[in-house]
From TrEMBL:
Residues 45-183 form the ATPase AAA-3 domain. Transmembrane segments: none annotated. This is MoxR family ATPase. One of its GO terms (molecular function) is ATP hydrolysis activity. It comes from Filimonas effusa. Pfam families: AAA_3 (PF07726), AAA_lid_2 (PF17863). Residues 247-314 form the ChlI/MoxR AAA lid domain.
Length: 330
C-alpha cells in the first residue's frame, strides 16, 4: 500500500513536470494544457477548435513526445497524425485487407488508428462518413471490420483539431461524434507579451520540440487514470453536476440539453481535473472551470446569443447554491 502511495506521489509530481515540459514549447497556454491532460486522465478524448497557426498541432506532438513508451521505451509512445481531407476514406484510418501471395489469404494491415496518441488534424475537413469511422474506436477502444473485432491499445488518446465551421471547406461534426469528445476547448491566440517572447525565441522553441524530454511513462499515465477514478467528490458537488445537467434540458434557450452520459463524463473530468491540479479531492472551483469545456459542445442552442449566456446563467445559479451549502465547512 505504501509503495502504491509513493508511486502516486511520484506520478503527481510528474504531472507538474509534464505541464512545465509542454510549456517550454507551448507558451502562455497553461489552462489549455491542463484541460488536455484532464481529458487524458479521464480516459477520454479532446477537441480543439481555432484558426490555423495557433499551436494546436505542436501541442499534440509535444504531449506525445513527453510520454515514454511501454517499459520506459525511449522512443516514446506510438504517435500518429492524420491530416483529414475531403478525399480521405474510412480505410485510410482503420486499415484494409491485403492479399498475401505466399499465404494465399487476405491479411489485415492496420491503419493509423492503432496507436497510443492520435492527432486528428482538421477533422471537420473530412466527410461525415470518415468522421463516423472514429466513433467506435473512441467510444469502445476497438475497431470492428467485417466479422473481426480488433482491440486498440490500452492507452488510446485522440486529440482532434478543427477549424471554425465558418471557414470554407468544413463539415460540421455530427452530434454523436461531438459527444465522444469529453471536452472541447478553444486554443486561442496568446497575449501580446507572450507573442513577442515567442518571436524572440522561436528558434529556441523549435529546438525544445526537437529535444523534448520524456517526463512521464505510459505505465504512470495508466496509473493516474486509475487514480483519477478514486478522487473524492463531496455529495454537494455530485448534486451540483446533476442540477446543471438537468437544468440544460429545461432552459428555454437550449433546444437539446445534456444527457445522462454527459453527466457521467462531467464527473470523470471533474475528478481528473482535480488530480491534474495535484489534489485527491475536487472543489467548487474545479466545477466552475470545467463546466463550459465539458458541456458547451453537447448542447444545441436556440440562437447564437444564447450560447454565451444560457450555460453561464445555469452555472452561476449553481455556484451560488454551493456557496450557501458551504462544502469547505463540511
Amino acid at each position: 500500500m505504501e509503495e502504491q502511495h509513493i508511486q502516486i506521489e511520484q506520478a503527481l509530481n510528474h504531472i507538474q513536470q509534464l505541464v512545465g515540459n509542454i510549456e517550454k514549447v507551448i507558451r502562455g497556454k497553461q489552462s489549455q494544457i491542463r484541460f488536455i491532460l484532464t481529458a487524458l486522465l479521464a480516459k477520454g478524448h479532446i477537441l480543439m477548435e481555432d484558426n490555423p497557426g495557433t499551436g494546436k498541432t505542436v501541442m499534440a506532438k509535444t504531449l506525445a513526445h513527453s510520454i515514454a513508451g511501454k517499459f520506459h521505451d525511449t522512443s516514446g509512445v506510438n504517435f500518429k497524425r492524420i491530416q483529414f481531407t475531403p478525399d480521405l476514406l474510412p480505410m485510410d484510418l482503420i486499415g484494409s485487407h491485403i492479399f498475401d501471395d505466399v499465404r494465399k489469404e487476405f491479411l489485415f494491415k492496420k491503419g493509423p488508428l492503432f496507436c497510443n496518441v492520435l492527432l486528428a488534424d482538421e477533422i471537420n475537413r473530412a466527410s461525415p462518413k470518415v468522421q463516423s469511422a472514429l466513433l467506435e474506436c473512441m467510444a469502445e477502444n476497438q475497431i470492428t471490420i467485417g466479422d473481426a473485432t480488433y482491440p486498440l491499445e490500452q492507452l488510446f488518446f485522440t486529440i482532434a483539431t478543427q477549424n471554425p465551421v465558418e471557414m470554407e471547406g468544413t463539415y460540421p461534426l455530427p452530434a454523436a461524434q461531438l459527444d465522444r469528445f469529453f471536452m472541447k476547448i478553444y486554443f486561442g491566440y496568446v497575449d501580446e507579451d507572450t507573442e513577442l517572447d515567442i518571436y524572440r525565441d522561436y528558434l529556441g522553441i523549435q529546438d525544445n520540440l526537437a529535444h523534448i524530454q520524456q517526463v512521464l511513462s505510459m505505465e504512470e499515465v495508466l496509473l493516474l487514470q486509475q487514480e483519477a477514478e478514486k478522487v473524492h467528490l463531496h455529495d454537494e458537488l455530485l448534486i451540483a453536476v446533476r442540477n446543471i445537467v438537468t437544468a440544460t434540458r429545461k432552459h428555454p434557450d437550449i433546444v437539446l440539453g445534456a444527457s445522462t452520459r454527459s453527466g457521467i463524463t462531467f464527473l470523470k473530468c471533474l475528478k481528473a481535473y482535480a488530480l491534474v491540479n495535484g489534489r485527491t479531492f475536487a472543489t467548487e472551483d474545479d466545477l466552475q472551470q470545467i463546466t463550459h469545456p465539458v458541456l458547451d459542445h453537447r448542447l444545441i442552442y436556440r440562437h447564437k446569443e444564447a450560447k454565451q449566456k444560457a450555460l453561464t446563467a445555469i452555472l452561476d445559479k449553481e455556484m451560488e447554491r454551493l456557496s450557501k451549502a458551504g462544502i469547505s465547512d463540511k
